[in-house]
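Table S2 (continued). Query chain:
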Amino acid sequence: MTSLAQLEEQINRLNVLNKVSGKALDAFADASNNISCKAWQIMSDVKPWEVARENIALMIEEMSKASRSYHPPPSLQDVLTQQEKNPEVIARCMDYLVYADSYLASHPSSNYADQIQRTINKQIQQIVHISEELVKRAFFQALQKPVNSTKGAGGRRYIIHNPDALRDINLIVQRLGENFGRNGVVQNDVYTMLQSKVRSFIEARLTKASREEGGSLTMSGNHANMPHMLKHYQRKDHPLLKISQMARESVQEVSDCINTFIIKPLDESYMVVEMPSQLASVPFDVVMDHAMDAISFDKTVFRNPTKMFVDSRGQGIELYRGKRYFRDIIFIGLDLIEEIWQWKGLAAALPGEHDTFIDYVNIDVKRYLGALRELLEGYATCKGSLEKEQLKEYAKSASSLEWLPSLDSAAHEITTNLLSFHKVLLATYYGSLKLSLQGSLVNFNDDDAAVRKIQEYLIRTLIGTLQELQVIVDVAVEMNKRHEEGGYAGGGGGGALSRSRISPQVFLLSNIIFLAETYKREPCFQKRLMPAEDGGVAAPKKSGRGAAKSASQLPITAQILAILEDEHERCVDEFEFSWEKCFPEMYEDPELSSIRPDPNEALTKSQRMALKRWNKSVARALGEKLENSKIGTCVSTTVRARLIEIAVKTVRKKFLSFDDLVRGRAWSTRPRKWILFSVEEWIQRIKNIL
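Corresponding output:
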């Protein structure tokens, strides 16, 4: 029994052990299954090393961004308290604030983050204000002359005297515009500052020039206040030339500054790209206003050329006195063209957008050329417009008659002044004259057309001068005739009128010869050539540049010389006719025309009296002619000899006609009482006196 009981107990223990083992096996199986599942899960979660490295880098970068956003640079506080004013340091602080504000705004908010962002926004407002003030202060300091500056150091500067003050300021301008859109400080404050500086710079020099010139540059259209002495204008002598050049250089200087410190940092933003052109318009307007004032002239006087002539004291309208002589105003206008034309080049070379300014300059230059062309046209129109009757009326009340021809028939002042005018135009202002008459010189056709207009202009003024000379000598002769007859009581007195006892033809010839000789002699009249097709000769093959030019082109004065040659011959013919007029036409007297050519037929008493009257009239006319026809030394020996020959030939021919009529018949017992001199004696007197 005992053995059985022990056996059952062992069996029970085995059963219990078996159950425990089964549970252990089940737990092991569950654990193994769980380990296997976890292992598979871990295997699926493990990434390649490249991906893991990238994730690590992103985590490090994120931590760096967070660290940068939450840790401002040490200099920020100094910048905000304006203890630190270095533009480079301020730019770094601006970069931090912009970065931190952008970082915090792109992440979920929190109390700590919101507090930091509010602080950053306040700091941004502070640093923007500080930066704008710094920009204004930097440009202001740049405009000031350094205390210990050395003249000529660093090149000539007109506006930006202290460029070191702008060092790195472009960093601030860039960040203000790029990060905050704050371009107003450069658009308004800096622009106004630069504009005011440029304007004051130009006006200061104009004021100084005005004082030196006695106020000749002031805006005044009154020509009544004439100075006691007017200096003749010399080329490049007008102060506006230098001032305009300085204005252009100052504009270029400021434009380069704007380009470096504003336009480029703002990546040529449309808001600032026109600043150089807008600023350049200020000094350009000042220059053009004074240029227009320099050529201002009371054009109403053109309505009365005779008064202009009298007011010039007979020197010609060229020397009509206003604030300057009329021709000097024209010369000044032509002299300024070259300088004004430089503004067109400056407009095209300005940085930024300048198309509008180019058009603006072109319009004003065109307006200026038009005003100058009006003066040139007014001069040409007035030349030759002397009115004989009006000139005689002025002469009656004039206190002086300087315009009367000289006794020796020398070239009149209007002749010498015309030549002087033409000479200066061609020798000094030829290019400017072409521009003023043509308007533009874009190509060769424009240049050729301009040369033809110059030739036409010279011819018009020459013909006008010849017409004036004719009026002057006609009035002078008529005044003298009336004075001798006792019917004239002019303000100039008999002494002045006695100067008019000359031959009109000799006076005109003297002036014509003087004109022709000068046009031939002066190089400036010969070197200006007409276009090849105007020369009338086909251009030869080019064996030499100079040879081709001389063979195909004529001087610009060629037609002028032809006109003068025609006038010369006309005057010679009129000179001959004037001697013929000393001998009355016999067929007009009925008694003389009744004389028959038969030498055996005695003359009647009435016929003899008619012959006596004729001889008396001839003697008186020849006497007056000799007195009024002294050729003097103002013409060449050849011309003088020719005129004497014409006079002798005419007198001899007329006396021969008388002899043919009388045919030896006695017409007076004392012929010398009527004729005064024999034919040969008259001829000898002509040779001696002329």
